[in-house]
């Protein structure tokens, strides 16, 4: 299968996932509304309702975030930008897109972005520098 065929398939998957999320979000929201209508005034019930509400809103938040990412990816596809890295502009490997269809950067750029927050690569460079000094003596 060619890359463009694979990407077309990924778009279909994204659209299906988006529809499923839409349905889930609609279900969660109606559940939230029901919970609010069924409030009895009992303190324990109210506490349980609050916990359930929080759980639901966390779920909705996570689903909304994914939905945004998926809508963004579909938009990128329609703009002909889908599958290219935001960081370096190179095509994102299909294996990565299959794992995360709405990925916007390649693994190299993702690692670079993540290494800015850590010191993992600094240690490696120090070691290389030490070896070079030993060689020159
Ligand atoms: Zn990149």
From TrEMBL:
One of its GO terms (molecular function) is zinc ion binding. A zinc finger (dksA C4-type) spans 85-109. Keywords: Metal-binding, Zinc, Zinc-finger. PROSITE patterns: ZF_DKSA_1, ZF_DKSA_2. Residues 80-114 form the Zinc finger DksA/TraR C4-type domain. SUPFAM superfamilies: DnaK suppressor protein DksA, alpha-hairpin domain, Glucocorticoid receptor-like (DNA-binding domain). This is RNA polymerase-binding transcription factor.
């Amino acid at each position: 299968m060619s890359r463009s065929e694979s990407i077309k398939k990924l778009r279909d998957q994204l659209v299906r996932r988006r529809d499923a999320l839409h349905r889930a979000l609609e279900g969660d929201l109606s559940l939230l509304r029901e919970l609010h209508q069924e409030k009895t005034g009992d303190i324990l019930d109210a506490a349980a309702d609050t916990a359930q509400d929080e759980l639901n809103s966390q779920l909705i938040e996570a689903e909304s975030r994914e939905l945004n990412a998926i809508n963004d990816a579909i938009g990128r596809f329609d703009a002909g930008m889908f599958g290219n890295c935001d960081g370096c502009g190179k095509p994102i490997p299909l294996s990565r897109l299959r794992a995360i269809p709405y990925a916007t950067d390649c693994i190299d750029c993702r690692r670079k972005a993540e290494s800015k927050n850590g010191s993992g690569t600094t240690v490696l460079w120090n070691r290389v520098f030490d070896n070079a000094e030993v060689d020159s003596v």
